[in-house]
Design brief:
Spore Coat Polysaccharide Biosynthesis Protein SpsA, Chain A; five-stranded mixed β-sheet; four-stranded mixed β-sheet; 8 helices
Length: about 250
């Protein structure tokens, strides 16, 4: 596997037709990254796979690593093992953690590098690639595509809504050893971050989301629950030009 310095990781389940369809859409956004050759991708796949041909094709890419689990970890443990492998085995400093039923903008490398090379990286902030404001009031154009907002974690109007989104965030080695490594196996793995961090740090989100969740059917979702959030169908944009990013504190 190449020594690229931006890595996307995801736990993957391909045991039903709709999960396979979600993953195929997700993979298209991975392969469409502007700096694809500068990135690594690590996928921890549950053994119930409906289409091994897809995984075989992905293995042809030198910067994609497919790990088929030796037994059924199931959702929560597979989430844990994805980051365990990233930090304990590969020894990475940070990874972009995503779910396998998301879509992404094509500038994930550049926006991540901008944040990592800034004063805010791993300094009382956490970068999440989904800006939930876009799901409530979707933008009509790409104004603000260059802005990363630094803000408090709780939405000022939507009671109980936090800006941190577990569907796609930059997980750091420090976060792993401070918090995630100690997951008590009692609730959703990613949600373990919320009580540990939200009162201590701020959230950084692109003004225009670089990621959104497309999975209507899943372990903790069905169509009724999905629709109850009243989120719009905002999808992250594709950019044709290089962007000069900047921070904006709210």
């Amino acid at each position: 596997m190449s020594m690229n310095d931006v890595t996307i990781v995801a736990p993957v389940y391909l045991g039903t037709p709709h999960r396979l369809q979600y993953f195929e859409t997700y993979i298209k956004s991975c392969l469409s990254q502007c700096n694809f050759e500068k990135m690594n991708f690590v996928f921890m796949v549950e053994p119930d796979v409906m289409n091994f041909d897809l995984l075989t094709k992905l293995r042809l890419y030198p910067n994609i690593r497919i790990m088929v689990n030796p037994y059924r970890y199931k959702l929560l443990l597979n989430q844990y093992m994805t980051l365990y492998y990233s930090f304990e085995i590969l020894g990475l400093e940070h990874v972009i953690y995503t779910e396998d039923d998301c879509v992404m903008s094509n500038d994930m490398y550049d926006i991540t590098k901008f944040y990592v090379n800034s004063q805010y990286y791993d300094n009382n902030t956490i970068l999440t690639y989904l800006n939930k404001d876009n799901l409530i009031d979707p933008p009509q154009n790409d104004d603000g595509k260059d802005i990363l907002e630094i803000k408090q974690n709780f939405h000022p109007v939507k009671t109980g809504m936090v800006y941190f989104a577990t569907w796609g965030y930059l997980c750091t080695r420090r976060m792993w050893f401070d918090c995630l490594q100690k997951w008590p196996h009692q609730w959703c793995f990613s949600e373990h971050l919320l009580p540990h961090y939200l009162d201590k740090i701020k959230t950084v989100t692109p003004r225009l989301s670089r990621l959104n969740h497309i999975g209507v059917l899943g372990a903790s979702y069905n169509e009724e629950i999905y629709n109850s959030h009243e989120f719009t169908k905002y999808m992250p944009p594709t950019f044709s030009d290089r962007i000069d990013y900047k921070f904006y504190e709210i």
